[in-house]
Design goal:
The structure is a single chain. α3 packs parallel to α4 (102-127) and α4 runs parallel beside α6 (155-175). It is globular, with a radius of gyration of 17 Å. By secondary structure, it is of the alpha/beta class. It has one domain (4-244): Rossmann fold, CATH 3.40.50.720. It has helices spanning 13-24, 37-49, 64-77, 102-127, 145-148, 155-175, 194-197, 203-207, 219-230, and strands at residues 4-7, 28-33, 54-58, 83-86, 136-141, 180-187, 241-244.
Length: 248
């Protein structure tokens, strides 16, 4: 069966590494992005230069109409969806919870939680056997923050990833008989540009001493875990998590 994957937030960091590796493993790849078209197109070009098939599609996963357009475009241009990686996520400047405004929480939950829910619903509607689908696999990109809580920095981000963990467990049980597996990875301190979004581009250097392996991880190391969970090698694995966090 032809393999088709959507990677949300696929233009940078973990999403970009996952898109490239998925193409190497034989997937036709949709690189989704919200605003950075150039970065997403660079990922597509890298895939195409090595003989892979990829397209980039702009869509804000927190907007229902955008999600429907994203999935319909993949249906039309790549074919039947077999995999989804819910990678799109945001965080904001480090601060204590007592200083956080409501609109910040709304932005974070709209993308990290509701965006993943919207994409997952669209994927299940296509993959589910009861809807005429052939099954498939979903991997949610959570965070080690889901159980450390990320105090004094990103408590709201951590809470959004906790919600994603709960969805992973519940949905895995709900769709197991439909031929769909649902799992998650929980990255720890990974060297991506997301740290700059939080106001500390060199955060890995500050926190790496907290990691037993004494270093930050790479997007490629997370991508390897994601692709294993998508693969047939993980055919009896659902509702579970791989922590990619250097032993933290």
């Amino acid at each position: 069966m032809k393999k088709v994957v959507i990677v949300t937030g696929g233009g940078r960091g973990i999403g970009a590494a996952t898109s490239v590796l998925a193409a190497q493993r034989g997937y036709a790849v949709c690189v989704n992005y919200r605003s950075n078209e150039a970065s997403a197109n660079d990922v597509v070009s890298e895939i195409q230069q090595t003989g892979g098939k990829a397209i980039s599609i702009q869509a804000d996963v927190s907007v229902e109409a955008d999600v429907e357009r994203l999935f319909q475009t993949v249906d039309d241009q790549l074919g039947t969806l077999t995999a989804l990686v819910n990678n799109a996520g945001i965080l904001e400047l480090q601060m204590k919870m007592e200083a956080m405004p409501l609109d910040r929480w709304q932005r974070i939950f709209n993308t990290n939680v509701f965006g993943s829910f919207l994409c997952t619903r669209a994927a299940v509607q296509r993959m589910s056997r009861s809807h005429g689908g052939q099954g498939g696999a979903i991997v949610n990109v959570s965070s080690l923050a889901a159980y450390t809580g990320s105090p004094f920095e990103y408590l709201d981000y951590a809470a959004s990833k906790g919600a994603l963990d709960t969805m992973t467990i519940g949905l895995a049980k709900e769709v197991a008989e439909e031929g769909i597996r649902v799992n998650a990875v929980r990255p720890g301190f990974i060297a991506t540009t997301m740290h700059a979004d939080g106001g500390e581009p060199n955060r890995i250097e500050r926190v790496k001493a907290q990691v037993p392996m004494k270093r930050g991880g790479t997007p490629e190391e997370v991508a390897n875990a994601i692709l294993w969970l998508l693969s047939k090698e993980a055919s009896f694995t659902t509702g579970t998590f791989i922590d990619v966090a250097g032993g933290r």
